[in-house]
Known about the structure:
about 140 residues; five-stranded antiparallel β-sheet; 7 helices; alpha+beta; globular; binds magnesium ion
Amino acid sequence: SQRTFSIIKPDAVRKGYTAAILAEIEKAGFKIVAIKKIGLTKEQAEGFYYVHAARPFFGELTTFMSSGTIVPMVLEKDNAIADLRTLMGATDPAKADEGTIRKKYASSIGENAIHGSDAEDTAAFEIGYFFAGYELK
Length: 137
Ligand code: ATP
Ligand code: MG
């Protein structure tokens, strides 16, 4: 099986969707390996999203991601990285398929409820950014 990294973003936590999103994730067959509730500083959000530093929305994105509580987690199943991206739906919730988490719980391309790693190397970086080895048994 494979591990991936996910975050329930501040918009979804604020709206009270944490438990509903976790239920969707478990129903889809993911095991929750590690999970916590934290807040990021702007600098910590910038470090997490450094690959997007040159994008026009970087300031908006990192201000948003540091605007409230988030729920980072490590998830495990066969084909976890691709399957989580499918479960999440398109970045823009207006373009997301019916039944996806972003279709159900996201409000805009900027405030889109959930993050999921897009490849094995980014998953490894992102897991290490939020969790220590002893939390990942
Ligand atoms: P994520 O990396 O959060 O799982 P994603 O892989 O679907 O989302 P990316 O292209 O990696 O999308 O963009 C990272 C995040 O930046 C998006 O989830 C969204 O919150 C934000 N973002 C992307 N495009 C825009 C945009 N045009 N305007 C505002 N925010 C955006
Ligand atoms: Mg991405």
